[in-house]
Amino acid sequence: MLAETVCSAVAAAGLGIAGITAWRKKFLSAARIAAYALVPLGLVMTGAVEWLADTAFSPVAWAGFGVLGAAWLLFSSTRAVERRRSDRAETTGGEQRAAVAPAASAPAVGGRRAQAPAKPSAKPSGKPADEDFSDIEAILKKHGI
């Protein structure tokens, strides 16, 4: 009951100030002040002030706000964990894709294939033949790395 009285008094005072401002021929400012003054009155008439007053002093309502906060915290933390996992999967998957699909760099070394193939080393080094990095070295030299 006290909140409604205070809001009504604020609205009345605001409308009085708006009237004085309009009397001074500042109609735009007066209209804006009147609009602000009518907001508390509208809140009282719709029952929002009574609802807020009942909510502010209700322990059950505050417990409800706590439960809503906990739910929000769970949603946001699970979303953050999900994003972190997907970021890790993308970085890991990207490296695996690069290792699995070496043909993606074939156009960059197209001129290299027209030349004679590189001669294998005279002495066997004990490494498998598929670890020939000459194509990779050519790409790195081409880009100045």
Describe this structure in words.
This protein has 145 residues and is mostly helical. The protein has six helices and no strands. Helix 1 (2-23) packs antiparallel against helix 2. The model has no long low-confidence stretch (mean pLDDT 79).
Notable characteristics:
mainly alpha
- The residue ranges in which pLDDT falls below 50 over 5 or more consecutive positions are none
> Please, how many helices?
6
Can you count the beta strands? 0
Class by helix and strand content? mainly alpha
* Global shape: elongated
Regarding quaternary structure, what we see is single chain
CA-atom Rg in angstroms: 37 Å
Main sheet attributes: strand count, strand direction, barrel closure: none
Calculate the terminal CA-CA distance, rounded to whole Å: 78 Å
* Series of H and E elements: HHHHHH
Overall mean pLDDT: 79
Strand content: under 5%
Relative helix content: over 70%
